User: What shape does this take?
Amino acid sequence: MPGLRGFSGRNLRYMRTFYSEWCDRLGGLPNLELASAELTTADAVGIWNSQVPESGASPLDEFLSIGFTHHRWILSLAKTLDERLFYIHKCADEHLSVEALKRSIKADDFHHQGKAPNNYLATLPKSQQALRAINTFKDEYLLDFINVEELGVRDAEDVDERVLEQGIVQNIKQFIMTFGRGFSFVGNQYHLDAFGVDQYVDLLFFNRDLNCLVAVELKRGPFKTAYLGQLSGYLRVLDDFERREHENPSIGLVLCKDMNRAFVDYIIQDYNKPMGVATYKTSADMSSELLDALPPIDGLKALLEGDGD
Assistant: This one.
């Protein structure tokens, strides 16, 4: 192909990897699409589904809609078919940038999305709303933008929820990107006044997809049952005094350092306000195996800049 430029040795190897990883799974589908003018979208999707059985496969148009660089990172960092299809769908659905995709893989969203203990099915009036809420939240969040070194030198009595809250507020853009799409920040220490009693919600968001307020309570320690009672009270006041007519019932999330999942699953069902519980960790909490598996920053820069072999 005389005159065609831009294919470095590295890019050719990426293309070969892409082909070798997907050609068997796709049954040569890209070639079929180019070779047959009579191949319909339904035919293509049928071939895709026949080649990717029982995987919750994302539609073919999602596979084709994301960029080659996205595919390259997914193939490099996600090893199983189901995991790769999950990130393909996430990229297509949320229009993730390459950097956002890498953060999602680093946070292991595949194993955490939609897994938070909750009572949404029992407390939200519409099943579709409940399912959207379940899929919105994860059971663990990576808050690697929090300055854990600074936290470590503070006196024990000063290391409380407010310190964590301020770290999140100062990095609210990163927190929203970690939380997921559709979130808008309303405020921190959001003041509620009901019957002359002052209450303060740690973090208050509005989610456009869920069309509701989302109250987040931050806890530095492990989960305690009392946290659900406190959050339930906030949600009652939000619904009665803050929620607008067109909005769905407010949702709450306790974000704590640790939890006994079986216990939380058991106890949360007795509450009639929609709530979930999730944990968080910082980069200091990540296992050495996971940290070692992540490419070094110099290596990431070299890959993005296209330098070296």
Q: What stands out?
A: The chain is about 50% helix and 15% strand. Strands lie at 140-142, 183-194, 197-207, 212-218, 251-256, 275-281. The CA atoms of residues 232 and 282 lie 27 Å apart. The mean pLDDT is 82.
